[in-house]
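User: Can you help me understand a structure? I only have the sequence.
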Amino acid sequence: MKKTLIDNYSRSIAENFMPETDRIEYKRELHTDVDIEREVIAFLNYKEGGVIYIGIDKAGKIVGVADVDGDILKIKDRIKNNISPSSMGLFDVVVEERGGNNIIKVTVASGSEKPYFKKKYGMTEKGCYVRIGTAAEPMPQAMIERLFSTRTRNSIGNIRSHRQDLTFEQLRIYYEEKRKPLNNQFRKSLELLTEDSALNYAAYLLADENGVSIKVAKYRGTNRVDLIENNEYGYCSLIKATKSVLDKIELENRTATQITSKERIDRRLWNPVAIREAVINSIVHNDFTREVPPKFEIFADRIEITSAGTLPEGLSEEDFFDGVSIPRNRELMRVYRDLELVEQLGSGVPRILESYGKECFRFMDNFIRMSFPASGVVTPQVTPQVTPQVTPQVERLLAVITGEHNRQELQDLLGLSDRKNFRTKYLNPAIDAGLLNLLDPENPTTSKQRYMLTELGKQYSSWLKKTITS
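Assistant: Let's start by predicting it. Here is the structure, written out as tokens:
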């Protein structure tokens, strides 16, 4: 009897969702009588956005969707073509499996260009809707006029790029890698044009050449007094700069070891999933209209990530931590999602909070800063005993390295012509001793491989110079 009750309860949980709320709407199926545009517009105009489930009836019972792929295409097409201003970058459409049935989940973020409306009816009570309780209600004309008068106009999509001779070869390559080749109309489809068809500031950020540079600084201590490394990634497509920052921080996110009386515990300095989300969020949501890029600073005990701008209007700190998303730069959000750098809307902060507390976030007047403590010492001090058995050849190699070099450059600096001798006597021993890093560790034998000193290598090299001059 008890087992039967448990089985029935489990089946009920699997087959039913919670009731509809101000942020959740159910539709049994998608057909011509279902006004999906109305529901999406209501959430775009609502302060917190919301979620629409297709394949669930009003009672919360899961009935499933017969033609998932076909319905997804219809939903995307209707949202794209029937709603204004453009909501691209403000919604996700995904498939979920619940109770053995496939359902469709449409996540809608609150938009920054309210009021949103049906193109067919314009900014009228027949075209504008807002979420009130569990329903999408017509928006009063007074509210429409108030929202329109305060609409955000100072966005990267509306700002004209000061350069109109922009090229996008890097962007094309990234889209081709994802098997989403760009056609000749991509500037329009990706919303890289202003209303008068000029390239906008979003286009400038994504172009092959621009004036934006993102810095990754590293300090020896816990303050900004002793700068030991300052890297700049930029003057190129923001996508390329983002990937470079991610690669650099991944390189710095070494494994720290804690040895106890019972076991050896290995763990990364920072949770890699949380740090990746934090990096992406800081770039995608940065207020580029201030012409201040995000910055990344690594200290002996933590990493700090600072982005320009405050929380968007209408978004509280509580909403922020709950995963409510109001994308500041929807044009960038669209591209980052296309290239699979961003997953579902609103998933970034909850992913971070799985590893770090809310106290790691600081909201300032003009900036948002995230500070994540390290699990070990980031910049350990080095003595000669730390790196024993360093050969004279390795010491010669350390002395000539000044930044990033490929193999041939290092051989030329050392005056060596024998590749095999260089690898066996100089390069490989330095790598094995933890003094040299491969910038492309996933492809160690690639002909394009480049090398640079690790933190240990830099400190040992500095110690050698002091020893020689003392």
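Now, to help you interpret it: The first strand starts at residue 24 and ends at 27. The CA atoms of residues 324 and 346 lie 6 Å apart. Let me know which part you'd like to focus on.
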